[in-house]
Input
Amino acid sequence: MILTSAWVSAIGSVVTGLGAGLGGWAALRGVNAWRTEALGRRKAELAEEVLAQFYRARDALIWARLPAEGAGAEVSAHDGAEAAARGANAMAAPIERLNQASQVFSELQASRYRFMAYFGEDAARPFDDLRKVHNEVVEASARLIRAQGKPVSEGDAADQDVWRNTIGWGAHGQDQLADRLERAVRTIERICRPLIEEPTPRPRLAHRLAHRLRGHGGSVRN
Output
């Protein structure tokens, strides 16, 4: 078979078309891979940020629940206003400490919806669990403040024991609130740590995409 100029031209057009098609396919794959890598990088950065926020919030709650000066003193209705004031000041310590750390909890809750967007609604449960612990400590502290200097019935005494346990000033033993706090942190760790510890892929997909585009006549500006 003798190849005429028309055949040569046609074959050249087909080859050029195939080359362009393959180049476009390779470029599209490169773009998709770059998007996947960029998404993974953003998820890893958010995971690192949120995990650090959880650690700070846990430490703030542990500090808030440490007994303050005068925490073990019992104040009755016969002890006078001054003793009642001292007791109220001691009971207010958890609220004051959490107020000092308010930015920590604000930043954590601000990350909640971003975290849900990347990891799903179920990933918000540790946020909710930690917030419940925070609210319970504040509420128990407020109830104890209001109870200072008032007559205490048997039922009131039982309630106050529960509130004292909530703010960490109860009898030594199993601390259920501390266990709940630790479970929330462990849950968020299981979500975040695999992303944080995942090695960075190489070579960088952006560089590979640029190389492919150059090889197929594309132009990439730095």
About this structure: The chain has a mean pLDDT of 77. DSSP finds nine helices and no strands in the chain. Residues 55-197 form one domain.
